[in-house]
Amino acid sequence: MFLETKDKPECFGCDACAQICAKQAISMKEDAEGFRYPVIDESLCINCGMCKNVCPFEHMPEKHEKDKYVFGGYHLNPETRFESTSGGAFSAVVDAFCDENYVVFGAEAKGLVVSHGYITDKCDLGRFRKSKYSQSVIGSSYKDARKFLLEGKKVLFSGTPCQIAGLLSFVGNIKRENLLTVEVICEGVPSPLYVRKLDQHIQKKYGEPIESIDYRFTGKSFLSHGKWDFEGMKIILANNKKVMIKDRWFNPFWSVWLNHLMSRLSCYHCKFTTTGRTADITLGDLWGVHLYCPELYGNNGGSSLVVCNTEKGKRIFQKAQINMFGHELKFEDALKYQGPMRKTISENSERAAFMADLESNMDYQAINKKWAKKPTIKLLFQKYVWGNRQKIFMWNLKRKIMKKEVNKHA
Ligand SMILES: Cc1cc2nc3c(=O)[nH]c(=O)nc-3n(C[C@H](O)[C@H](O)[C@H](O)COP(=O)(O)OP(=O)(O)OC[C@H]3O[C@@H](n4cnc5c(N)ncnc54)[C@H](O)[C@@H]3O)c2cc1C
After folding, report:
1. Mind listing the pLDDT tens digit for each residue in 205-239?
2. How far is the CA of 186 from the centre of ligand 1 (A)?
3. Concatenated DSSP letters for 222-245?
4. Is 272 in the pocket of ligand 1 (CB under 6 A)?
5. What is the pTM of this model?
6. φ and ψ at residue 34, rounded to 5 degrees
7. CA of 346 relative to ligand 1 center, distance in Å
8. How far apart are CA 155 and CA 1, in angstroms?
9. CA distances from 270 to 17, 162, 289, 406 (A)
10. Å from CA of 130 to ligand 1 middle
11. At what angle do helices 192-206 and 351-359 cross, to 10 degrees?
């Protein structure tokens, strides 16, 4: 049975209830759409109420609304930056926080499965870099984090905002001074069924399953523009041979997902798409960079938006900043281009019909033919022709202005 009277839109799938249950009466099970929900084994449940107490949907941890420090920029090490999704701010924060006796939690992918894990050596950080567009399985991470805090270790926990809220509910006030929470800006998680259909398609076409997916590949190739904001996708097959890359406008995954056809139901009722945040630090893409701070666009490797929500977050990020190129931004400017910090996505009225197709025998190609939108000529012109010219014009203009300013103060 799904956690008593709860409706699906009221469950973020954060796992906190399953982990707090002393009787192991709750397990997380996939529904037909591929999203995980808590299921109670009535024979083990003793009605202690712990699962309800820890649920962040019912008891939202404190949100930090005021006195933010907002930064835009990218990691000074080009390798780190290209290995990251946005501008590599996550790596800079990890470096600043983790001196000794530390543990870092994050999401990693093994094949198509995304789950949370931890590392005790920063050299292994590559496991957590890059956004995996699937809700990660928290597993025993909250319990592990609490154990490490009780042992006196410094814990950096990263994840989506609902996962951070689940963690904060779970650990309560235990050794909070040693805990740094880092969330990614999130506008929802897509159904894993879609990527499984993609895998079936790949296997049929190439005879090999998918080994890994880089959803935000920034390398250049025949099919990819090699730009962070063009969101190329690189798929590596099990035989390590076939690699396919497409810019975002031609990739049906982005079209279907960003049309809000296949997000988890709770994402349409998300309580975290506000300026008040529960995490110490919020990380995202510096969308709008070419419009309001083009000097931070750099050479296509990506740019990060960093919002420090607490004093602890600010203190750590001040240290992290030595590894970043960039500067302070106005929160209002950043907000204009960050929908998920202002409003919740709306459920597409055709979601149920789309999900029915996804759950049926319809294959990947048929689904995309029916549901994915092709880019219009106007869009392609804007992105590949006009957009570039406009960007180059804006960079040059800003650079000239900045140079003049620097010379004036020299
Ligand atoms: C599902 C999802 C949706 C997102 N939506 C937006 C958005 O709408 N707007 C925006 O500006 N940014 C969004 N982001 C955040 C953005 O893509 C980058 O993750 C973020 O800017 C950090 O990039 P980075 O270069 O600093 O570091 P990276 O090294 O790329 O950081 C990786 C970080 O992301 C975490 N992470 C990766 N995959 C997952 C996952 N599946 N679940 C939980 N945590 C994960 C890792 O634990 C690590 O903390 C989203 C990320 C995810 C995972």
Report:
1. 999 999 999 999 877 665 556 678 888 899 999 99
2. 7
3. SS----GGGTEEEEEETTS--EE-
4. no
5. 0.93
6. 95, 0
7. 21
8. 34
9. 18, 8, 26, 44
10. 7
11. 40
Q: Rounded CA gap, 13 and 1, in Å? A: 15
- Cα distance between residue 303 and residue 87, in whole Å: 4
What is the SS3 assignment for 344? coil
Determine whether the shortest distance from the Cβ of 197 to ligand 1 is under 6 A.
no
H-type alpha helices, 84-175: 89-97, 141-150, 161-171
> pLDDT of 172-184, one tens digit each?
999 899 999 999 9
Cα separation, 329 vs 70, whole angstroms: 5
- The residue count of the chain comes to 410
Q: Give me ligand 1 centre to Cα 284, in Å.
A: 7
- Residue 51: both structure tokens together: 């699962």
Mean pLDDT lowest among 105-114, 177-186, 333-342, 394-403:
394-403
The C-alpha atoms of residue 363 and residue 374 are separated, in whole angstroms, by 18
What domains appear along the chain, each with residue ranges and CATH number?
A: 8-54 (3.30.70.20), 69-189+263-341 (3.40.640), 192-261+345-375 (no CATH)
Please tell me if the CB atom of residue 345 comes closer than 6 angstroms to any atom of ligand 1. no
pLDDT at 378: 85
Question: CA–CA separation, 65 vs 309, rounded Å?
Answer: 7
Write down the pLDDT at residue 406.
Answer: 67
Q: Choose among 121, 186, 113, 171: nearest CA to 141.
A: 171
CA-closest residue to ligand 1 atom 52: 131
Binned at pLDDT 50, 70 and 90, residue 243 comes out as low
Rounded Cα–Cα distance for residues 370 and 170 (Å): 42
Tokens of 356: 């029915």
- Locate 325 and state its tokens: 């190129």
Q: Is the CB of 158 under 6 A from ligand 1?
A: yes
Concatenated DSSP letters for 273-329? Answer: -SS-BSSSEEEEE-TTHHHH-GGGSTTTT--EEEEE-SHHHHHHHHHHGGGEEEEE-
